[in-house]
Amino acid sequence: MSARNGPPALSDTLLIHSRAQAGLADYCSVRGVPYERVMRENGLDELRAPMTLGDHISLRAHARALEVCAAYSGDETFALNWSKFAGPGRDDTVSLALRYAPDFLTALQTTARFICIVLDLAEVRAKHASGHASIAFALSPEIVCRDQLTDRTVSKTFMRLQQVSSEGVRLSKVTLARSRPASVQAYEDFFGVPVSFDAPVNCLRYEVGDARQSNPMRHDDLFAALCELNRRRLDDRRRAEDFTARVCDAIAERVSDPGLTASTVAGALAISVRALQRRLQERGQTFQGLHDAVRQRMAVDLLGYTGMPVSEIAYRLGFSATGNFSRAARRWFGCPPSAWRLGQSGASSIGRRLPPRLAGAETQAMVSCCDGIPLSDGDTHS
Description:
Blueprint: E1 15-17, H1 24-31, H2 35-41, E2 56-58, H3 59-73, H4 78-86, H5 93-99, H6 104-118, E3 123-129, E4 132-138, H7 147-162, E5 169-175, H8 185-191, E6 195-196, E7 202-208, H9 220-237, H10 241-253, H11 262-268, H12 273-282, H13 287-305, H14 310-316, H15 322-333, H16 337-342, E8 380-381
Parallel strand pairs: 5-6
Antiparallel strand pairs: 1-2, 3-4, 3-8, 4-7, 5-7
Helix pairs in contact: 4-7, 5-6, 5-9, 6-9, 10-13, 11-12, 14-15
C-alpha cells in the first residue's frame, strides 16, 4: 500500500507479515505516539485484528511507519526500545519451528531458510565454521526508510535465537546496516557485545563451543511438521511476482546509473536480454516500466522522509539533470518534486531526517559480511 497522501498506489512486491504490527499500538500509546494517525498517513489504517498467518502488508509502508513513530517519540532507538518493551512479538510458524529445533545451529539454518516467509529480503545467509556461526541479511535496496526496520528485525532475530542458545553459544559481534545513532550505548546494552553501524549488511556473529548441544525444548516431530508447513508456505510465496521482485532489486541496486539498461540488469541476473524481456512480458511487465516504478517508489520515500535536496535525489535516482527528474515527478505526482514534498503531511512535517545514503551495495558485500567466515557445506542462503 502507498501512503494515502502520496501518489496513486503502485504494485508493491515487497511484503512483511501483518503480525509485524502486533503490539505496536500499545507501545505507541506508552510513548505518546499517535498510532492511528501514523497508520493512516502510511496507508495501514485498514489493518485490523485478528492478523492471520497468511496476511501480509507493504514492507515499505511498515518501514516508513516505524520511522514516523521514532520521529514523534523523539527517540532514534524507538524500534530497539519496542523490542525491549514487548519482546519479539507474536509467534509465527517460523519462530515456532525455531523453538522446537534440535539445536542452535539447526535453528540458525532454519531462520535463514524460512525468514523470507515473514519479510522479503534481498538475501540472507547462515554460515558456520570451526568455532563460529553467523546469520546475515540484506534489505532490498529499494527500502529507503531502513533504520527502525533494521533495529526491529535484528533485535527480534536475536531474541528468537537466544531462546534456543545453549551455554556453549555466545554472541560476539553485531553489525547493523543502519546509520550510526547518537548513542551507541543503548545497542551495546541490548546485545551485550560491540555493535558496528553503517555496515553493508546486518549480521549476528556467534562463538560456538558445541552448536549441536541439544535444545531443552527440542521436539523432533513438531519441528519436522512446522518445517514442512513453512516449506509449503515458502513455495506459495515464490509465485510469478518473485522474478519481478528480483528485477526490481537489480534495478534499485544500480538506480543511480543514468545509463542503466536492460542489458546491464540481465547480466546481473545471469540471463540474456531476450530472456529478461520474454519473462517480463509473460508477467505483463516491461523493463522500462519497472525502472520507472522503482524510481517513483524511491522518490516517494526520499522526498517525503528525508531532507535530501531535490538535486541530490535526482542524482541518486539516475536522472542526468534535475529538469528530467522534475518532468518525471510531474508525470507521477501531477506537480514538481518540491511542490509534492511541501504538500506532504507525513513524516517530513515533523522534521524526520534520514541519512542521505542508499544501500545499493548490500548484496555484493554479503559474502564478506561477517569478518570473512568461510563458506562451508553447512551454509544456508536464499
